Amino acid sequence: MALNQEQHILDQGLLDAQLELWHNTFGYIKSMALKSALDLGVADAIHQHGGAATLTQIVATAKLHPSKISCLRRLMRVLTVSSVFGTEHSADAEAVYTLTPASRLLVGSASMVPVMNMLLHPILVSPFSDLGAWFQQELPDPDLFKLKHGNTFWEMADHDPSYNTLVNDGMVSDSRFLMDIAIRECGGVFQGIGSLVDVAGGHGGAAQAIAKAFPDVKCSVLDLEHVVAKAPSGTDVEYIAGDMFESVPPADAVFLKWVMHDWSDEDCIKILKNCKKLAIPPKDAGGKVIIVDMVVGAGPQDLKHKETQLIFDLFIMFVNGVERDEQEWKKIIFEAGFTDYKITPVLGVRSIIEVYP
Fold it and tell me: pTM, whole model, 2 decimals?
């Protein structure tokens, strides 16, 4: 009897180990379930019914073939257990699906759907099927994206107008969401600045938010010619075509949002040196570089934050990028000739880093 109990414990341990492998193996199904909800417009359908809707009500609005209603129920089970949507039961026991804080970000004018569409697009997802093969090749070329597609991420955006639109819409969506919070939580970072240039700022989502909140700050955006060519008109932001590896326009502050993690230490040092040498005034005149990026290990210490930072660090390898911890940031900041920095971890998994000459 004791032997049977001991074997039972061992067997349960084996099954738990198998469960752990399965849970990791099928993690991509959660991502694809979210993508399908975006494609079908499930969040919008629930939103149109006041934030709570039955399956029948969702089907009436969502882009769904009627024969797939039972399949939609199974999809919604996954999306509710992963907290993308919530569920209640009506008086007749029919399931009622509700918006959660996460899915509320998928509706309305500040919707994060464009950036989610970018991150979940097959062009970005498919390179990771070759991750094992990529590890067997010497750095730096080709990066994971080029290994899969034959072009770098930047080359594809340059040559494919639809993909360029996908990327720029995604970045504007992220900036629209994040910058409102950044300005509320850490608006002092932008006070006392007369001018700011948003380097690699795309279509100016961040710069527009800063200009709106601080009308006295003259904001401009530096990006590549094909990006600036599609920039919106009629904003309070000036768009400048150029290359940050060659020069950075002068301003009191240089703003770098979600840029530095795309590049190697050597490239980041070159960018920062251009900021220091060509763009900003000395520290006593108010000059600084403002970086919005991850600082691995900073911010909330719960498992979801930690795991997301580390997963994103693996994700950004598709362009040979890296998410850095404080010591890694300190290294490139000081090697670029700057004398001090301040990290403010108020943006979830991301932080604001002020860098002083």
Answer: 0.91
pLDDT confidence band for 253 (50 / 70 / 90): very high
H helices present in the chain, as ranges: 2-25, 27-40, 42-48, 55-61, 69-81, 101-104, 113-119, 122-125, 131-135, 144-149, 153-159, 161-186, 205-213, 225-228, 265-274, 303-315, 326-335
Q: Please give the positions annotated as active site.
A: 261
Predicted confidence (pLDDT) per residue in 116-169, tens digit? 999 999 999 999 999 999 999 998 889 999 999 999 999 999 899 999 999 999
Contact 341, 290 (CB under 8 A): no
Enumerate the H helices of 82-222 as residue ranges: 101-104, 113-119, 122-125, 131-135, 144-149, 153-159, 161-186, 205-213
Torsion over CA of 238, 262, 107 and 309, rounded to 10 degrees? -140
- CA distances in angstroms from 331 to 313, 326, 334, listed in the order given: 18, 9, 6
Radius of gyration, CA atoms only, the chain: 23
Nearest to 107 by CA among 50, 64, 182, 26: 50
For residue 144, the SS3 value is: helix
Q: How many CB atoms lie within 10 A of CB 240?
A: 17
